[in-house]
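Q: My labmate handed me this sequence with no annotations at all. I'd like to see what the chain might look like in three dimensions before we decide whether it's worth expressing. Could you predict it?
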Amino acid sequence: MSDDRRRFTRIPFDAATYLQQDDWQLPVQLLDISLRGLLAMQPDGWDERRRKQSFIAIIELTEGSHIRMEVSLAHAEEGMLGFQCEHIDLDSISHLRRLVALNLGDEELLERELGALL
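A: Here is what I predict for the chain of 118 residues:
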């Protein structure tokens, strides 16, 4: 998808991030996050067979809080993995909204993106 077709602002963000499936977990380097998903570097040990399954992405924030979202792999290219958010709980969307609001600095743009999400 080209950048001009994106409806969600991508926020460069670096935080401890993990992908999980059942009892499997792998740390990934987070590159950016948006209200609609996240982009991470493809980690060592990435198993291509897992790509068709959904994941739980956990992004650790300060003070013991985190963003937890169910994601699916949207694209894998040039050593990067793009994930689309399929579900996010209320606490996590509150943390993500606050993070996006702080980085956008534009309440109107934030409300437009939230409207597009719903």
